[in-house]
Task: structure prediction
Amino acid sequence: MHIIFVCSHACSIEPKRIQVATGKKTYTIMDAKELFALEIFGALDEAQAKVDRELLALEPVQCVSEMASTLKCVRVGTDCSGMEAPIQAMENLGVEFEHRFSCDIDKNVRATILANFPHGKMYEDVTTRCNTSAPHCDLYVAGFPCQPFSSAGLQNGFNDNSGRGTIFFFVREYIEKQRPRVFILENVTGLVKLNNGSYFATILKSLEQLGGYNISHQILDTKQNGVPHSRRRVYIVGIHQDADRGTFTFPEPIPAPSMNLFLDSRPNKAIVAAGLPPKTQTMARSNVVTILCKLKREGRDPLEEPFLIDCDSSTARSKSMFNVSPCITCGRHMGHWVTNRGRRLRKMEMMRLQGMDPTKFRVVVSEAQLGKQLGNTMSVNVLERLLVRLLPAAGLASTGLRDRWADGSAVRRLATTRDHGFAESSAQLMMRRKAYAAATTTPNILPKKLTNNVAKSLPKKRWASSAATAKGSPKRVCPTSQ
Result:
């Protein structure tokens, strides 16, 4: 008996050819465009007849569409792209892929993407893009804006005054028009319970109405996926039914490693003991002093143990966590306070706590903008563990992808980046390096006006740590946060 899969224009699946498989051989029976044309003109009987004529020369076979086969190169597209955590995860997995497009309305985010992940097409606004003509992709990932649903915001949901609450429907439109094999949507957990769960129910129902997708969702926490960072997010996964092999499961929780593996080396205890936020940061300084006293009364030694304090919160909401970072958000772009370092988290440490390797990263934005991007991004470790299971389940990769976070190899790799800075290859950083050298080694050679301008352009915070230089690591050109 012959089993024939015919992809109609209503499916919008975009197969390239109809194939016939006989044992180890595959034969092309009909070009998909030819089949589509025959269907348009009501000639499906002729199409079936042509397929049957070809089949007569073969042994009993099973016809399959390209959707059911494993692709050699995965086409990836992202919306609300941020720091391109999906692309970083794909690179870590070693899967061959083509980065077809990104989209972000923030010009600083676009600058970060172009400096680190050059690719096919950059869109500025998902709400004005024509999704019918947008590039097709196999894997589509979107972290649509979370502010309208976050417990830290106004929780206006779809009624958000800036229009951020309705971005989801433009994301859905891309899925409807381009029909990727798989998609991943991410948002804050507030989406699940806001307005008694009605917003989330609307989103799930809307996705179900697309038809042809198996959809599942789960709340995943970064600290349960190999990185000590408390960051709970809801992930919605859709797999096209024609590609679904039925093997996908969400990753099981794994223990969080020690915070010290993600932090740069400790200074001596006297420096740690003297460390406090500056007096100009009144709320932060008060919160740190209060929590340090509280921990000491409880018999803990915060100068030795890694407690992280959400020091920029209000006094009532400020808290500390042992061996785990509170959630890194846009509002915490300056970094949480680290008690056994006597300072705030540095941007390189914040990247590690999002599962990213800072030594591969080029910084082309200000420190404040980088902090905001780190507060908005998806966690690379969570996405990577999702993709390890999702790609084989949809025929986008062979089985046997390694879960580096479960076996510990990813953490060991990140630990080797401690006391190192960002990649030095961006033009902006090279200019700052020259300015720094000119201002510190030959100030008398430069005209006074130029010297003053260089001095004003330099960061007030210190540069690479002396401990890193003493160990023989290369000098870093990016300032580190205190």
